[in-house]
Design brief:
The protein is mainly β. The protein has 2 helices and 29 strands. Helix content is 3%, strand content 36%. The protein starts with a strand and ends with a strand.
């Protein structure tokens, strides 16, 4: 079992431990002259994690079991989940987890609650042992009650639909690929129209949720001056108007490695990664509608935010956060907003951007570093307004967090 240090950071109108001055209002998250703070609470005792499956922690799948209703008779311990009515919407399906990280802002927040019982109370709402072996699974999304969709590679990419009531496999779709193409892990998403979308390497597909039939396919374009075979699209999301927004990721010319080996073994100062392209696609036909190219490779996956009447796509380079405007179908780089030059000595490039109300947040050390990690929070209204905090100083050892932050816009907290 491994232990991972954690900290809770908060943007608040009340000074907290280890605070740094910031210029936001804690009431409506809008900019004003009220001094507020970003701070940290909690300690360095970690949440635990292991690789076991099953409730007994032995690696053996749990025996399917049900506990009907609440752990407390007459009380609904899961009111948020009970009130959720799954169904279509303009962009993301109304469900517990339509996206890789919960929503288009990548907050990791889900419209669900969990009840583990009072101290000393044994409470299992439900557990399932799912049918079959599904290797190298990456992410799972939900749709209607009782439906879950898993993306993985075995070694070829696939999507599996599970019946959550029984644990049975409803269907398994083997995803089409392009021969001899750069390979990188993709993901699966539940679109607001109810269809399932998945990307692997540079191939995006639309899948019928009832049958698993591939309804549409698109082989996405490379960045100008690069080979299609060196290009993957390792992340995509859905904009408020329903368009798919995808981002490319490439390896240097001549590199034949796949996955992270293409970065660790092929990339150096003489052989940098090509810059990333951002594209919008029609959700029904998967036709590419607009393309922009960033000045550098975007290492993280895209986050989308509605702010001040506009839709913005946020992406991070090594030492920059870029904003791309989405107007209708069209993408343009926003030259009036860019946050950069934030890496301290010894720090490595940032992980994905997350949106926190009127702010965006990013952390450093997406690859191993000996310097402590820094969390930066930047105003969407004004890129010159920002604050930062080093939550783990001094660093207890090598600092490395490839995953993005978790951001709760309700409490204005970062985890």
């Amino acid at each position: 079992m491994t232990y991972r240090p954690w900290r809770r950071l908060a943007i608040s109108a009340v000074p907290l431990a280890g605070t740094v001055a910031c210029g936001t209002s804690g009431d409506d998250n809008s900019l004003d002259e009220t001094p507020t703070t970003i701070g940290a609470d909690g300690d360095d005792s970690g949440s635990s994690g292991d690789d076991s499956v099953g409730d007994d922690g032995t690696g053996t799948p749990s025996t399917p079991a049900d506990v009907g209703g609440s752990c407390v008779p007459g009380q609904d311990d899961l009111p948020m989940s009970s009130a959720l009515e799954p169904g279509p919407s303009d962009w993301a399906y109304d469900t517990v987890s339509p996206f890789e990280y919960g929503d288009m802002e990548r907050t990791h927040i889900h419209p669900a609650d969990f009840y583990f019982g009072a101290p000393g109370e044994e409470c299992v709402v439900a557990s399932r042992a799912f049918d079959g072996a599904h290797l190298s699974s990456y992410n799972i999304v939900t749709r209607d009650r009782g439906e879950a969709f898993l993306y993985g590679t075995d070694p070829e990419p696939y999507v599996v639909k599970f019946d959550l009531e029984t644990g049975d496999v409803v269907w398994r779709a083997e995803l089409p690929t392009v021969d001899d193409n750069f390979v990188w892990v993709g993901l699966v998403v539940t679109h607001g129209n109810g269809d399932i979308y998945a990307v692997h390497s540079r191939t995006l597909v639309r899948i019928d949720p009832a049958s698993g039939e591939i309804l549409a396919r698109a082989d996405l374009p490379p960045v100008s001056g690069t080979l299609a075979s060196d290009t993957v699209y390792n992340g995509f999301t859905v904009a408020p108007n329903g368009l798919i927004v995808a981002k490319s990721y490439g390896r240097p010319a001549g590199c034949l490695e796949n996955g992270t080996s293409a970065i660790t073994q092929c990339v150096d100062d003489a052989n940098p990664q090509p810059p990333s392209a951002v594209v919008t696609l029609d959700p029904l036909t998967l036709e590419v509608l607009s393309t922009v190219e960033l000045p550098e490779v975007a290492t993280g996956r895209p986050a989308v935010a509605e702010f001040d009447g506009h839709v913005h796509v946020y992406l991070n380079g090594a030492d920059n956060v870029y904003r791309v405007r989405l107007d209708g179908n069209d993408l343009t780089i926003d030259d009036n907003w860019q946050f950069g030059g934030f890496l301290a000595e010894g720090q490595t490039g940032s992980s994905s951007v997350v949106v926190l109300g009127d702010w965006v947040a990013v952390q450093t050390n997406g690859t191993p570093s000996t310097a402590p990690m820094t969390v930066h929070v930047v105003s969407q209204a004004d890129d010159s307004v920002s604050t930062s905090l080093d939550p783990f100083t001094p660093a207890p050892g090598p600092s490395f967090t490839p995953s993005s932050l978790t951001a709760d816009p309700t409490s204005m907290s970062i985890y």
